[in-house]
Amino acid sequence: MKPDIRLKLLPLLCLQAAAGWAAAAERLEEVSVTATREARATAEVPQAIAVVGKAELEDKKMFNLKEATQGIPGVLIDSKNGGFDARLIIRGAGLKAAYGIREIMVLRDGVPLSDPDSFTRLDFIDTQDIERIEIAKGPGNLFAAGSVGGAVQILSKSVFDDAANNLKLGVGSEGTQNYHLRYGKTGGQQALALTATHRKMDNDWRYWNQFDTTQTSLKHGLMLDGGTLESEVSYAEANMQLPGAMNQALYEQFVRTGEQTGTSEAWKHSGRYSKVWFLNSKYEKEFGDFTFKPRVYYNTWYHYHPVTGIINETEDWVWNLGADIEGQWRHRGGSLVGGVTLRQERTPDARKYQYRDYTTGFGGRITATLSDAKGALAEIDDATSLLTGVYLQESWRPTERWIVDIGLRYDVVRFEDDNNQIWKYDYVSGKYVAGAGITHSEKTFRLPAPKLAVSYRLSDGLHLFGMVAQAGQIPAQSEFSSNPALNAPISRNHELGLKGRGKGWQFDASAYYNPVKNEIVQQSNGGVTSYVNAGKTDKRGMELTGSVELGRGWEVGGHYGYADYSYESFNEVIGGTNYDRSGKQLPFVPRHQYGLFLGWKPASGWRLRLASNSWGEYWLDNANSQKYEGWEWITNLSVAYERDGHSLTLNLDNLFDEHYAAEVKKDTTGKVSYTAAAPRTLMLTYRYGF
């Protein structure tokens, strides 16, 4: 660690910028469509939200969502290998996800990417085609079906925007490559846009850590008598190796050298290799004061997914078909939004296999895999999930200063599963044993989500808001399959906040109390992952983010998040013994999260952004038996120059080459494992806009 250099650099640059103080230009207010399903200035949205706009995204290499969202308080995100994978936690929601994103609804252009059980994969998202990202935190928005963590809306470049045409070529350290082309043409009432992207990282600093993806998309737009019809078809192939964790000795070696030469786990060939087709079509038309917005969408995917003890393969492709029929009526006192959602996922003949190649030790225990080739058939699964939902929200404006949002979303999710388990991996003996045979399960969850939120304009630049909102969390199918008694968590958020917007400055501040009944807790016991309900969890926190323009193109800002998350009532059973965890803090979530940034964008065509983030110490387990110190002032730098449509951007992530752990956890047997964060990486990107 090099604290002296880091701590001195940012304040020095900030002072240099402050010396050039001048009158700042009027800031353009960002607009959000995620929290309320209507376009509204973020200052008028009575909820904690964050918008990452086009200008900020231009300075990122955008290989994953982490690069765009890591400076938002209350949002914890990291990527195991710098590819499309991301572990996303918003105010504690998503904490139990071992892989992918759970408890948080993710959408692209209003189309859900999350499965009906709230599980989200990001392998078919072209991050080079993102225009902006909106994050609505916690319960309280109409998009988030069965998700207590809120919603992440990814907005892509419009098919009607010819100015979005560009060619991008990038190369960097660790075998990083990026090739991207977007070409569109608008003529008459139609528009067509083709997008193609290939990204690749060798990541030689760590064993079994490669990533590559190839994505193509064709968008079509049609203007029809005052309405618009937009359709898209895309295809993606993604290959991602998932590196294993380290024990204490391997981690200490990584801290010294910046390299991870292996994993202490027996499963050395985990990964996900997928192919995805994604189709969607949306129509929007105004009939006087009424706007009609139907959407239909379909995706189908195949994956080969080696994980701990087993290899997953969807030989018959999984498909997900859905529709969202929405209408908005603008009346004298405000607007009324309502609609219905219908979505079904079908997983036919999904199969699990034993590993074919591995070594064994005493008693036949598997000690190491030698490849990711599949062996004997272990399990056949046939599953269906169906989500139906209705939503309604009145946005009432009694005076020019007041906005009152009264809404309700009600979702019903039904699961059916037929399973034939021939073999299973037994964690106690460390080898394959006979499975449970043929089983059938059914489960239905009913989740009401009411909301009352108020925004009051104190002055032209200040908006006060308050809200009370509730949401139910759909358990993942894998969770209640291992524990059929699992109940759906109910999260109720109480929040007060203040938003300021002015000439060259802005800030958002909020404080919340969010009790959760039946929080689903992940338990790890010697490699066995199980899920149980906690009686009640209390989540208290506050968040602050802001920025100010200093003149001559300089801008400085920062963020701070405080989180006090504890179990009010939770009994954890380990080895047949009941342990009371009441009063203990939730693991992994730091109490303090903070960062600073400095930006420079003069009229000369240069751009510079220096951002530094910190993640405070946290507990490793539910027992609060050990802490990890976290990490401080991990700094990213981007420098760009643009002229006549040509631009050159240099990205330096982890500028000071800190060697630290992105995640540390401790299971109920006392085993501590470390997941390494990436050392310094460099990338140079040429972009031509035409």
TrEMBL record:
One Pfam assignment: TonB_dep_Rec_b-barrel
Organism: Sulfuritortus calidifontis
Record-level Gene Ontology MF annotations: siderophore uptake transmembrane transporter activity
Residues covered by the TonB-dependent receptor plug domain: 43-151
Lineage start: Bacteria, Pseudomonadati, Pseudomonadota, Betaproteobacteria, Nitrosomonadales
Signal peptide: 1-24
Spans through the membrane: none
Topological category with respect to the lipid bilayer: Multi-pass membrane protein
The family this protein is said to belong to: Belongs to the TonB-dependent receptor family.
Motif TonB C-terminal box, residue range(s) on this chain: 673-690
Keywords for this protein: Cell outer membrane, Ion transport, Iron, Iron transport, Membrane, Receptor, Signal, TonB box, Transmembrane, Transmembrane beta strand, Transport
Matching PROSITE patterns: TONB_DEPENDENT_REC_2, TONB_DEPENDENT_REC_3
The protein, known as: Iron complex outermembrane receptor protein
Keyword presence, Membrane: yes
Stretches assigned to the TonB-dependent receptor-like beta-barrel domain: 260-655
Predominant localisation class: membrane
Cited InterPro entries: Beta-barrel_TonB, Beta-barrel_TonB_sf, Plug_dom, Plug_dom_sf, TonB-dep_rcpt-like, TonB_rcpt_CS
Keyword Ligase set for record: no
GO cellular component, one term: cell outer membrane
Intracellular or extracellular location(s): Cell outer membrane
